[in-house]
Amino acid sequence: MSPYPTKTHASSESRHLLAVVLTLVTLCTGCVSRSWADESTPAIRILVAYHSLSGNTERMAEAVVAGAKSVSGTQVILKRVGQVTAEDLFSVDAVVVGSPVYWSNMSGEVKTFFDNWQFKFGVFPEFKMKNKVGAAFSTGGQISSGKEITMLTILAAMLGNQMIVVSDGGAFGASATTEGESPGIDDKELTEAESLGRRVADVTKLIKGGGFTLNYSE
Hints:
- By secondary structure, this protein is an alpha/beta fold.
- It has one domain (about 45-210): Flavodoxin domain (Rossmann fold).
- The protein contains 6 helices and 6 strands; from the N terminus they run αβαβαβαβαββα.
- It has helices at about 5-40, 55-70, 85-90, 110-120, 145-160, 185-210; strands at about 45-50, 75-80, 95-100, 135-140, 165, 175.
- Strands 1, 2, 3, 4, 5 and 6 form a 6-stranded parallel β-sheet that branches.
- Helix 2 links the parallel strand 1 and strand 2.
- Helix 2 (about 55-70) crosses helix 6.
- It is globular, with a radius of gyration of 26 Å.
- Residues about 1-10, about 20-40 and about 210-218 have low confidence and may be disordered.
């Protein structure tokens, strides 16, 4: 037997070696591409905080969460306002707050939540929520029961903390009418809440990713 490989055997080894090299290149290229993709899509964290007795505002909150989670790279924390901690506020990039309408305004629990930002959580005077994204949603029994006022007061509290507020599902945020001819939460209102969550995630990702700059020049 000849001590040297035949031409056919050498050719077979060459093809095998080439296949191995191509496989390694493909795998490495895929790893690099995945790494670049992950780096170009920053992970964002959103807190959805709400107060609900009847369950209507809670359903809207869950829809906001679903909308936010539909955006890749989004982590969402869902809590009642009384369960939110300072760590929750400071560790997230965006906060969405929902309230039922009580006497044409936000509920007392939601108002206490915002009061706690200063007196319990120490947000002020350093404006520790500055440049985080904020949004609001509300539920009310009647068509003109104060839903817009409720959302505006929530947004006003956020603006007072120098947050960047956004809306979707309506002019000031997502809302639902829960009595009369429209009892409970219908599919259209849930869709609006999902749209709000999705918009908050999109804008937050845009800001955190560096694709958005603020121009303070006059």
